[in-house]
Here is the input.
Amino acid sequence: MSQTMSPRWAPLPHGLGAMVRSARLRAGLSRERLAKVLHVSEGCVQAIEGERRPPSVEVAERLSAALHLDPWEEAVLLAVAVDAGRLRSRAGVRHIHRRGTPVPPEVVDRIALERTAGRSWRSIAAGLNARGTPTMQGGAWWASSVSRAAAVSGGS
Here is the structure.
């Protein structure tokens, strides 16, 4: 099976998944039952067996105890285990959506002034684009980016 390269961990050794799978079958456990014993999802067990993801240190220790691995298998498993913080899924990773330079206070003040004058987000965006005012990422202003800039600064 092909390995997925990840910047969060080194490539897994070929055969790790087969070793875990054969130990699971020797113990007479299904993936579902092993997942319950380890307190992880069935997908986590499948990813370890498929060599797509290494186990965390805690899961490797529980896996070794649950499957009664021999010392060599346990050493291999613990050697590839990584810190749990490096295994978080995309859903668990905090992403920063605001990148680039912050919107200058004078632009935020201008947006607030025009909004209180009754202009729509779209017309304010068109005015900022006409004046050549750059966005945080250097692109064009849209109604949503104008309202976001106003909301981030505490405007209306």
About this structure: Residues 91-96 have pLDDT under 50 and may be disordered.
